[in-house]
Design a protein that fits this description.
Blueprint lengths: L17 E6 L3 E6 L12 H5 L21 E4 L12 E5 L19 E2 L8 E2 L23 E6 L3 E6 L3 E2 L6 E2 L5 E4 L5 E6 L6 E6 L2 E6 L8 E2 L6 E7 L7 E6 L2
GO molecular function: dynein heavy chain binding; dynein light chain binding
Keywords: Cytoplasm, Repeat, WD repeat
InterPro entries: Dynein_IC (IPR050687), WD40_repeat_dom_sf (IPR036322)
C-alpha cells in the first residue's frame, strides 16, 4: 500500500485496492478504490424498491462513484525540469502479494504462535486479542519508490514517486526525473520485468528492443539491431530466464 505521502506500507487487510494509471498528460496517478470512510450513501426508497432481475448483490455499489487520485506524479525532464514526457507504460519493482521485503525477524504486526504446527506467525486479523484498527501499518523501508516509465517518444524514464517538500512554501512537489534517454525508435509498447530477476527490464517499441538493468544507466545489457517488422509486444518466458518472446506486425 502507498500512502498520500508516497510512503510504502504493509497491506494489513491483505487485499488489492490501489491502482496506478498513466496517460499522455505527463502524469502517473495513484488511486484508492476502497469504500470511503464516510460510508456508502444509503439507497433511497425508490432505489430500494427497484427489483434486480439478475439477482446481483449490491456489494460493489460504492464503486459507482467519482474517484480522485490521492497521489500525482508529474514527470519532468532531469536536465531542464520542463514537462515533456507522454507516458505509455510503467513498471514498478514490487508486485501484489510479494512479501519478500518484510523482515521476518522484526515484525510488529505478527506474533509467534505457541503451536508450531499452525505456522510461525499469526495475523492480527486472526488474533482475537487484536483488531485491524489496533494494528499499525509498518513502513517498508526496503521498498524502492523509484520506477520506470516508457513514453510515446521512445524514452525510458527513471522517476521517484515520493513527493518532496519545498522548504519555503512547505508544499509538496514531484522531484525531477532521475534519468531519461531514448531507447527505441517508436512509442514504447512493452516494459516488462524478468520474473527471475526483478532488476532486469525488457523494453520494446517501434522496430527495436533493449534489455536494461535497474540503476545501471551507463548502457543497456542487450541492444539488438532494428527488426524488419514493427514490434507489437514482448513477454518473458515464465520458465526459462534467458528466453523472451516477440510479437511483430505483419503488413
Amino acid at each position: 500500500m502507498v500512502t498520500v505521502q508516497g510512503l510504502p506500507t504493509e497491506n494489513l487487510a491483505m487485499n488489492c485496492s490501489q491502482i496506478m494509471t498513466c496517460a499522455f498528460d505527463n502524469q502517473v496517478l495513484f488511486w484508492e478504490t476502497r469504500v470511503p470512510r464516510a460510508g456508502v450513501k444509503p439507497l433511497s426508497k425508490k432505489e430500494r424498491e427497484i427489483i434486480n432481475p439478475m439477482g446481483v448483490p449490491l456489494t460493489f455499489k460504492h464503486l459507482d462513484l467519482i474517484w480522485k487520485p490521492f497521489l500525482r506524479v508529474t514527470l519532468q525532464s532531469p536536465e531542464t525540469g520542463t514537462v515533456e514526457f507522454a507516458p505509455r507504460k510503467f513498471s514498478i519493482r514490487e508486485t501484489q502479494g510479494d512479501r519478500d521485503v518484510l523482515n521476518q525477524e522484526d515484525k510488529e504486526l505478527f506474533e509467534k504462535k505457541k503451536d508450531t504446527s499452525l505456522g510461525q506467525f499469526v495475523n492480527p486479523l486472526d488474533d482475537p486479542n487484536k483488531t485491524l484498527s489496533q494494528a499499525k501499518a509498518k513502513v517498508l523501508q526496503n521498498v524502492d519508490t523509484f520506477f520506470y516509465i516508457g513514453t510515446e517518444d521512445g524514452q525510458l524514464v527513471y522517476q521517484d514517486w515520493m513527493p518532496q517538500k519545498d522548504q519555503d512554501s512547505t508544499k509538496f512537489f514531484t522531484p525531477k526525473a532521475a534519468w531519461s534517454t531514448i531507447v527505441v525508435d517508436g512509442p514504447v509498447v512493452a516494459l516488462k520485468r524478468s520474473p527471475f530477476f526483478k532488476d532486469v527490464i525488457l523494453v520494446a517499441g517501434g522496430w527495436m528492443f533493449q534489455i536494461w538493468r535497474e540503476k545501471i544507466h551507463s548502457g543497456s545489457l542487450l541492444h539488438a539491431a532494428p527488426l524488419k517488422e514493427k514490434i507489437t509486444d514482448v513477454e518473458w518466458s515464465p520458465t526459462r530466464p534467458g528466453v523472451f518472446y516477440i510479437s511483430k506486425q505483419n503488413v
